């Protein structure tokens, strides 16, 4: 099964640069993470800076796996903003869609994993540069090249970024791109829970592929059972959706299409830091999809791609930080092969 995961031989950088590019739209920021684990933000003795932002993580993850990716978003005309642009460039992500704002700073987020296992966030965006991206600043040529256009929901919270997001989505759709959506719920950033629910669902029916977590299902459905297939199909699956994926952490994922549904078990590992696991999963899936857009129609091929994506997510949690821990294709295939051999 591992030998032909997402047509591995086709996935090499530069071979199909323009017609297989995955363009990721949204936020790029600096995460400040405590130098010790298991403490609250107030208890942390010191912090270490790390690049963050889910869409940017996905772009780097795809490039790390040998795919072709680009990022569109805005940072401050400041030291952190240029540092982030350089990090994307160093990771072979096309950053020509980045813009630099002279009147707002690059977004900052303080993130910690408390002793009880819950993540705690504190955001500094009042406003931050990512919220100030205007439609007129969009790199339209880059968007029109996208085989897949991927985005989250944080860019829907405030204007003018919301209008830029919607315009970019519409442009990508008209150009024939597959629209990929990972809501990536961050409640503290929204005015209220109801505003978050409404905002996230406002573009739901326009996406071709949606990835959600169990917690997000519970939130979006108003408390319904995240494990109930009927809930998922009735409340979250829409008529034009090609694939809905529900991630279950170390347990793996579930998938739903019009023709079939099922579950792909995960790879058990010792978790050090879960930051970026979902982004790594999305990177794995989109890398496979960019080389085989008919994945949606073939359950066997889809399961292979999801198996690969599970492996990407699993390897990421074994190291600290999102971007530093995103794996290479070789590392994922080796880990999956060893895990499969040890669990026979």
TrEMBL record:
Protein name, as recorded: fructokinase
Recorded metabolic or biological pathway in which this protein acts: Glycan biosynthesis; starch biosynthesis
EC number, as in UniProt: 2.7.1.4
Biological classification of the source: Eukaryota, Viridiplantae, Streptophyta, Embryophyta, Tracheophyta
Cited CDD domains: bac_FRK
UniProt source species: Hibiscus sabdariffa (roselle)
Catalytic activity: D-fructose + ATP = D-fructose 6-phosphate + ADP + H(+)
Taxonomic superkingdom: Eukaryota
Signal peptide (from-to): none
PROSITE patterns attached to this UniProt entry: PFKB_KINASES_1, PFKB_KINASES_2
EC top class, as a word: transferase
Alphabetical list of Gene3D superfamilies matching this protein: 3.40.1190.20
Domain (Carbohydrate kinase PfkB) ranges: 22-328
Function: May play an important role in maintaining the flux of carbon towards starch formation.
Keywords of the record: Kinase, Transferase
Family affiliation: Belongs to the carbohydrate kinase PfkB family.
Keyword Protease set for record: no
